Amino acid sequence: MRVFVEVATSGSFSATADRLDMSRAMVTRYVGEMEQWLQARLLQRTTRSVTLTDAGEACLRRCQQMLALVEDIEEETTATGEGELRGQLRLTCSVSFAYAQLGAAIADFLALHPLLKIDLDASEGALNLVERRIDLAIRISSGPDPMLIARPLARCDSMLVASPAYLARHGVPDLPADLERHRCLSYANFGKSVWELARGGETARVAVSSHFSANEATTLLRAALAGGGIAPQPTYLANPHISSGELVAVLPDWGLPVMAINALYTSRRHQSPAVRALLDFLVERFKGAPWSL
């Protein structure tokens, strides 16, 4: 059932094999055994895609329910006498936050709970937490999804940065309007052509010329480090490079919109002890947004 659910949600036998660390032939065998057991074709296979049949859609819903029940039973009955946490947690967060902060945080959390396993999906797109069986999503936004329960972890401040070499070649902007004459690096899906800045009660909207855009922060960070232009960056990612002198804050008196870092989940009622422990750990770990200091 686990193999079938992974194939159904990913739409790929190969991706399932990679995710579950097994051969593609073994994935095909398990799906075949499911179809033989139920005497029904569950998946339509072509050279380009894998889609669910009507029987497959009904089977997927039931398999997800049964797997969720199995996980609940395991979590409730497999604690050791000392109350140690067991089982597996599935998380998702952005690539940049995983790289800069969450990877190390998870390593420290697992050192405290060595019987736990954590599977992290670092991606920029919004995932269906129920379909993907995600226990916890760490997302940065101006407002959390109202359909999910949100627990605030920290604020996310951002700044404009550039390399010393770029600024030596092109000059240092003194005012937001000066950005119009610079090479700018933008997020593809957020403020690509217009940047909003604020200083005290003063605000500025600048139409920038974006020579390079990307959908995640670490790519723009590398471009800025290489002298490619001025980029907006979260402080949790940029601060180490500011401290080392590899990057310089541009227009430091002007701030970019502040966002929130939230832990999102689907239900308080069925929250496992492991999820609660991880949430408490992350709240304490990121209290006061240490990267903003």
Please describe what this structure looks like.
- With 293 residues, the chain is an alpha/beta fold.
- It folds into 3 domains: 1-77, Arc Repressor Mutant, subunit A, CATH 1.10.10; 83-150 and 261-293, Periplasmic binding protein-like II (D-Maltodextrin-Binding Protein, domain 2); 158-257, D-Maltodextrin-Binding Protein, domain 2.
- It is built from 9 helices and 14 strands.
- A hairpin with a 2-residue loop joins strand 9 and strand 10.
- Helix 1 (2-10) packs across helix 2.
- The protein is elongated, with a radius of gyration of 23 Å.
- The chain starts with a helix and ends in an 8-residue tail after the last helix.
Strands ordered across the widest β-sheet: 4-3-5-14-6
CATH architecture identity of the largest domain: 3-Layer(aba) Sandwich
CATH topology of the largest domain: D-Maltodextrin-Binding Protein, domain 2
SS summary, helix count: 9
What's the average pLDDT?
88
Shape call? elongated
Tally the structural domains.
3
Helix content: 25-40%
- Write the H/E string, N to C: HHHEEHEHEEEEHEEEEHEHEEH
Rg (C-alpha, Å): 23 Å
Q: Give the CATH class of the largest domain.
A: Alpha Beta
Query: Please, what is the CATH homologous superfamily of the largest domain?
Result: Periplasmic binding protein-like II
Multimeric status of the protein:
single chain
How far from one another are the termini? Answer: 47 Å
Number of strands: 14
Largest sheet: 5 strands, mixed
Strand content: 25-35%
Structural class: alpha/beta
